[in-house]
Write a structure and sequence with these properties.
This protein has 206 residues and is α/β, with parallel strands linked by helices. A 7-stranded mixed beta sheet has the order 3-2-1-4-5-7-6. Helix 4 packs across helix 5. The N and C termini lie far apart (41 Å). The structure holds S-adenosylmethionine (SAM). The site of S-adenosylmethionine has 20 residues, from strand 2.
Length: 206
């Protein structure tokens, strides 16, 4: 099994008010931007303890929570009864394990910076979506490396909004937009967070 970078953090993960506030703001940005529907089946990529999906759950039918960390998944499973839709928890590394399913949307909060190859991930997301389905992916704007004070497997010091939007279009997404979602407040600085949205085209290829 790969190293669980969140083993030491999982139990106290939700005790950080700035972290919770950030994900609440991301959830609000998703609800303001994406027309969620009661029949939808969504994937939460890097769901962690479920801070994001628990806000989205009352508006959809089912959420598949995918995370590589056993300790984060254990925290989510412990509160599964309080999640307002059907919940499936999958423990796998999406970058290493074949995963072939079809979803109506993919949501994600603060996980992209843990993934080395973002263009490959966006292509994978595109294949996991039905025609017309959406992505709503939140992460840090480019930062100076001071956001993380511990090693949790970080590959990117945030992202340039224009660059990640271009990568999403190159993966096949249409109606790509980048919204301001949140600002994480830390004692040593403020870190803006964006929400990247887009759709898999409904056009039939070729
Ligand atoms: C910073 S946490 C964010 C958790 C949650 N989305 C939130 O906003 O509170 C990043 C999560 O991504 C997960 N993760 C990192 N790389 C992953 C991968 N390759 N496949 C699946 N999950 C991954 C980590 O285990 C961790 O739970």
């Amino acid at each position: 099994m790969s190293h669980d970078f969140f083993a030491e953090k999982a139990a106290s993960y939700e005790q950080n008010p700035q972290r919770v506030d950030n994900v609440v703001a991301i959830g609000n940005a998703i609800k303001a931007t994406i027309p969620l529907q009661s029949g939808m089946q969504l994937l939460d990529f890097g769901a962690g303890t479920g801070l994001l999906l628990q806000q989205i759950a009352p508006w959809v039918a089912k959420i598949t929570a995918l995370d590589v960390s056993p300790s984060m998944n254990a925290q989510l499973r412990a509160k599964a009864a309080d999640i307002g839709c059907e919940l499936e928890v999958l423990e796998l590394d999406l970058t290493q394990t074949p995963f072939q399913r079809q979803f109506d949307g993919i949501i994600s909060s603060m996980t992209l910076h843990h993934i080395a190859d973002i263009p490959a991930l966006l292509l994978q997301f595109h294949q996991l979506l039905r025609p017309g389905a959406f992505i709503a992916l939140a992460d840090l704007d480019t930062e100076d490396g001071s956001f993380h004070t511990e090693d949790t497997g970080v590959f990117h010091c945030g992202f340039d909004r224009a660059e990640i939007a271009t990568q999403a279009r190159a993966a096949g997404f249409v109606e790509v937009q980048v919204h301001a979602a949140s600002v994480v407040q830390k004692p040593h600085g403020q870190y803006p967070v964006f929400l990247l949205t887009g759709r898999r085209s409904t056009a039939v290829p070729g």
